[in-house]
């Protein structure tokens, strides 16, 4: 039973239920009909006797029986004298009957498994002549209807149950068809590793449609995650390949027999710069992996944002390229927030250093921190080179660079900074928005909810 398909289980359950319902209805009908038949039987008996009494004619001291029906509607009519002698009517097939004694008596007697109803009427004629008229009916004869019904039920019931079972199986098959489609699609996807396939959804927006839709959404997210993973691996290898190629080339150059000490020193310097680049890349990747684990690695504590951002700004001011300035207007009193200190420092540092990297000569970066009713807002804007509109949606993707040659940073630009910032904002349940215009400047607005 456990190994049966849901389709078969549903069909079996419904067929069994149908069988029980039909059985109950049949039993109920039989009970009702037997008492109904008994009542019909008695009323028919009384009707026939009353009709026959009406048909009796008395003329000149003679009782005329011409119009009396001695066998009508299964009712046998008998006429007895006052002394109890049977005068008219055949009582051959009848059970042994006692003489009639009470007018209007209705007797019920059972012999050899057959039930009889006996109805007696006393008839007094004008000259004081009297007769007993007795009606006898066998209940079994009337029961033929019940027997017929039972026979009909025994033929119809199995047919009805088979019909119900087949119908139920058909409906269940139809209902489970979309699920079978889902299973086939899921198998195809798992066999071919093609996450771009989607489950065909039924037109009706029912539970199965919802299931398929949820499954498709999950496939979409999986496809996106796999694509990002692939992109990430290829970006990392690409980023490592360039410095590695440079290091190998410089080593070959330095090891050449003809190379002078100056050449070797020059090559060593290049190797050192490339090794530093690799080191930065590795530490950034490590940071990103930690950030990906999110909450697990965050240590939240009550943090004085005003103070923290002021310290970072003071530090960064010293690193500003010549002619560039950093303004910070942090509202008073101090703003506090549940945050991870080191993450906030990394976020602000990244954004300021981007401002420096992509700023113009004598440019300016402005930082604002303000507290609203439900939010804390951190806004950083610059009047730098700006980001072209078509690049803006992808700017937070890992390794995404508008153009690496735009950066003022020597070798430090890798397209990981903003994705790290976005991840930090996410860990703090915040949102980050970008507005930028080419050659005018860029503004990042970060909003944290107050908890
Ligand atoms: P990168 O290491 O290249 O700076 P980021 O993730 O920090 O990587 O930035 C991604 C890209 O976004 C950069 O290559 C740069 O083109 C652009 N960008 C980031 N910040 C700014 C800014 N303040 N002004 C103009 N462009 C910016």
Question: What this model shows, in words?
Answer:
Helix content is 50%, strand content 20%. It has eight helices and 15 strands. Strands 3, 4, 5, 6, 7 and 8 form a six-stranded antiparallel beta sheet that branches. Strands 10-12-13-15-14 form a five-stranded mixed beta sheet, with helices on one face. Strand 1 (57-59) and strand 2 (62-64) form a beta hairpin. It starts with 5 loop residues before the first helix and ends with a strand. Adenosine-5'-diphosphate is lined by residues 354-355, 357-358, 382, 384-387, 395, 400-402, 406-407, 413-419, 442.
Distance between the amino and carboxyl termini: 54 Å
Major beta sheet, specifics? Answer: 6 strands, antiparallel
In one word, what is the shape? rod-shaped
Q: Number of helical segments?
A: 8
What integer is the average pLDDT?
87
Rounded Rg = 52 Å
Compact summary:
With 451 residues, this protein is of the alpha+beta class.
Set down the secondary structure blueprint.
Elements (H helix, E strand, L loop, with lengths): L5 H50 L1 E3 L2 E3 L6 E2 L2 E6 L5 E3 L17 E6 L2 E11 L5 E9 H4 L1 H49 L14 H49 L5 H32 L8 E4 H13 L7 E6 L5 E4 L1 H17 L6 E8 L3 E8 L34 H11 L3 E7 L3 E9 L2
Parallel strand pairs: 10-12
Antiparallel strand pairs: 1-2, 3-4, 4-5, 4-8, 6-7, 7-8, 9-11, 12-13, 13-15, 14-15
This protein binds adenosine-5'-diphosphate.
């Amino acid at each position: 039973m456990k190994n049966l398909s849901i389709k078969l289980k549903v069909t079996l359950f419904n067929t069994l239920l149908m069988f029980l319902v039909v059985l109950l209805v049949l039993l109920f009908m039989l009970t009702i009909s037997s008492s109904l038949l008994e009542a019909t039987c008695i009323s028919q008996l009384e009707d026939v006797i009353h009709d026959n009494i009406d048909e009796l004619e008395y003329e000149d001291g003679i009782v005329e029986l011409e119009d009396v029906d001695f066998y009508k509607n299964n009712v046998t009519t008998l006429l007895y004298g006052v002394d109890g002698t049977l005068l008219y009517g055949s009582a051959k097939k009848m059970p042994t009957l006692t003489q009639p004694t009470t007018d209007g008596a209705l007797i019920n007697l059972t012999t050899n498994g057959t039930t009889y109803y006996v109805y007696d009427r006393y008839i007094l004629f004008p000259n004081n002549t009297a007769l007993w008229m007795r009606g006898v009916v066998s209940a079994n004869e009337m029961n033929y209807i019940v027997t017929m019904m039972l026979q009909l039920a025994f033929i119809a019931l199995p047919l009805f149950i088979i019909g119900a079972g087949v119908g139920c199986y058909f409906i269940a098959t139809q209902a489970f068809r979309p699920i079978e489609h889902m299973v086939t699609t899921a198998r195809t996807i798992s066999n071919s590793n093609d996450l771009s396939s989607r489950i065909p959804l039924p037109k009706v927006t029912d539970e199965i449609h919802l299931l398929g839709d949820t499954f498709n959404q999950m496939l979409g997210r999986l496809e996106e995650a796999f694509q990002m993973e692939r992109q990430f691996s290829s970006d990392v290898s690409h980023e490592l390949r360039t410095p590695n190629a440079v290091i190998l080339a410089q080593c070959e150059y330095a090891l050449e027999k003809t190379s002078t000490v100056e050449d070797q020193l020059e090559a060593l310097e290049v190797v050192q710069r490339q090794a530093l680049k690799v080191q930065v890349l590795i530490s950034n990747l490590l940071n990103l992996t930690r950030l990906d684990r999110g909450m697990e690695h965050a240590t939240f504590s009550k943090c004085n944002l005003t103070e923290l951002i002021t310290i970072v700004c003071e530090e960064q001011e010293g690193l500003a390229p010549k002619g560039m300035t950093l303004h910070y207007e942090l509202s008073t009193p101090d703003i506090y927030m549940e945050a991870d200190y080191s993450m906030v420092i990394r976020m602000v540092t990244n954004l300021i250093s981007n401002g420096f990297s992509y700023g113009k000569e004598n440019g300016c970066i402005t930082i604002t921190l303000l507290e609203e009713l439900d939010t804390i807002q951190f806004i950083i804007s610059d009047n730098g080179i700006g980001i072209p509109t078509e690049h803006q949606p992808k700017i937070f993707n890992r390794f995404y660079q508008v153009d690496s040659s735009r950066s003022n940073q020597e070798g430090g630009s890798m397209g990981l900074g903003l994705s790290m910032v976005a991840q930090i904002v996410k860990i703090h349940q915040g949102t980050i928005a970008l507005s930028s215009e080419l050659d005018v400047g860029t503004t990042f607005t970060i909003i944290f909810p107050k908890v």
